[in-house]
Amino acid sequence: MEYLKLIGIVIIILGFAFKLDTIAVVVAAALATGLVSGMSITHVLTILGKGFMDNRMVSLFFLTLPMIGVVESHGLKQAAVNGISKIKNLSAGKIFNLYLAIREITDAMGIALSGQVQFIRPLINPMAQAAASVKKPLTDKQVDLIKARAAATDNFGNFFSQNLFIASSGVLLMSSTMKSLGYTATPANIVLYSIPMAVITFLITAYYNRRFDKQFEV
Amino acid sequence: MNVNNILEIFYVLIGLIMVFASIESFRDKDNSARIGTGLFWLIMGIIFAVGKYLPNLVIGLLIVFVGVLSLLKQIKVGKLKEVNKEIAEKSAKRLGAWLFFPSVVLAIFSILISQFTKLGGQVGIGIASVIALIIAMIISKTDAKTTYHDSERMVRSVGTAGVLPQLLATLGVIFTASGVGDVTSKAISGVFPAGNHLLGVVLYCVAMVIFTMVMGNAFAAFAVITAGIGIPFVVAQGGNPAVVAALGMTSGYCGTLMTPMAANFNSLPVALLEMKDNLGVIKQQYPIALTLLVVQIILMYFLAF
Questions:
Q1: Using one digit for the tens of pLDDT, what is the confidence trace for B76-98?
Q2: The pTM is what?
Q3: Chain B interface, mutation test: which of A5, A63, A121, A191, most B Cβ atoms within 10 Å?
Q4: If we measure between CA atoms, which residue out of A19, A139, A196 comes closest to residue B297?
Q5: Which residues cross the membrane (chain B) (predicted)?
Q6: Which residues of chain A lie closer than 8 angstroms to B127, CB-CB?
Q7: CA dihedral B272, A109, B86, A73 (to 10 degrees)
Q8: Residue B178 neighbours by CB under 8 Å, 6+ apart
Q9: For labeling, which of A10, A148, A179, B258 is most exposed (least CB within 10 Å)?
């Protein structure tokens, strides 16, 4: 039965969907796929070991961690907060857009800020609420909408610009997976072809956020 | 010295910082799973530093062992020493924007070395990381001991999630060796004929969205959907692999934006911000996610072929 080979895909989908232990799920999927394809257990383990060695490049981002650790313990996040909190006299939408730009640029530099925890809750959400309530007080529903839009803006910026950083785990995973599958995609080329979406996402989100302001103007 | 030998030096360095993480995990008395966690980082350290001299079979066995440790919940991040806020505030005032300088150096040097030397992107990342670390240590006047602790803290904080991408890429090797792509393409081509470029692109991008929504993880979806659909229906038809990868992954992110399965991104903010609507974040995201998906399909169709 040829279709049995798809068991690995089934294991991955179910395992992730049911939130089972991710590492164990992937290892199980690898072993199961090899075994049902008629490989011996030693052969599967050998391919698994060789495959892991050949894909070490995906974990090159570990090399960037010591530097990030050093700047973090010397106030990287505090410096970013100090910078953003200087912003004044902007509408909620403009605050979101400025944050979006900052998020995309820092992401491209490989600075993975935990945006929701470090910036959205303590900084962007209260700033946007203050800005939106200048003309008239906010309803409960509007407060909820601002919170949601602030969180969404962080996700947009984060997702569509993280692949601009050549040593990000995503870029390395793509490059290495393509190599595993028998095709060449260099990290630099993946970064190059990630630029259009980073720009387009910024433009579309910026328009979306500017329209968001209208409901607070009347 | 060829590129692979230089790269091996950087893998040894990665192994070394993983061993730091291992030592500190073993010493972490508050972690109920300190032995397992210490073993996990030790095994990873060994694979990175000296794996080249071990038989592949042994590495395979070690990975299965890590899988079992993880399954038995014996790998835990534990309680890490938090950054000293007072010291951080003070030095943030003193250094200001200079704190971003090492990251800028890292990003720019990696690209420059990869584009303008024969060393390639991977060695570029290695060299740039070391230069950036040295600059960070100089401007912040950090000594070796503090750097050691900053390193082990960062490595331990990523936990098993840090090696998941590499493991997923490895899965691609097994899938290729087993011929998974052939089976899926045969199955799907009964319904959708392979060879139509636009249809292939739509199929791949939409599959990335749907499977990411179900799994809640775009990296995992990328490994299986690229092997099963991306390669036979787009890349094998002449699609540029870098374009297909870049836009395929971000198509997956559109799925992430629309699923409650991606709890870190869509449920965590609901809790953090004390929102009333559990799906509030997703409701703000889906119009943009769907728009971007259409844009990506168009871009992939025109850029890949």
A1: 988 888 788 888 889 888 988 89
A2: 0.85
A3: A63
A4: A196
A5: 6-23, 57-75, 95-113, 119-139, 160-181, 187-211, 286-304
A6: none
A7: 110
A8: A5, A8, A33, A34, A36, A37, A39
A9: A10
The answer to whether A59 contacts B17, with C-beta atoms less than 8 Å apart, is: no
Q: Which residues of A touch B130 (CB under 8 A)?
A: 63
Cβ-nearest to A56 among B48, B55, B168: B48
Contact A110/A64 with Cβ under 8 angstroms? yes
Helix (H) / strand (E) containing B64: helix B56-71
**A 85-114 residues inside an 8 A Cβ radius of B:** 106, 108-111
Residue pair B254/B296 in contact by the 8 Å Cβ criterion: yes
Q: Which residues of A touch B257 (CB under 8 A)?
A: 152, 155-156, 159
For residues B176 and B227, is the Cβ–Cβ distance under 8 A?
yes
Q: Chain A contacts of B51, Cβ < 8 Å?
A: 53, 56
Please tell me the distance in Å from B223's CA to the nearest CA on chain A. Answer: 7
What are the structure tokens assigned to B216, written together? 């809640």
pLDDT by 10s per residue, chain A, length 218: 688 888 988 898 898 888 899 899 999 999 999 999 999 999 999 999 999 998 898 898 899 889 989 998 898 888 888 887 787 788 999 999 999 999 999 889 887 667 787 788 888 888 899 888 888 888 999 999 999 999 999 999 999 999 999 989 899 999 999 998 999 999 999 999 999 999 999 999 999 999 999 988 76
The Cα–Cα gap between B272 and B236 comes to 45
| Segments making up each domain of chain B, as ranges | 3-71, 85-158, 164-303
A172 in contact with B at a CB cutoff of 8 Å?
yes
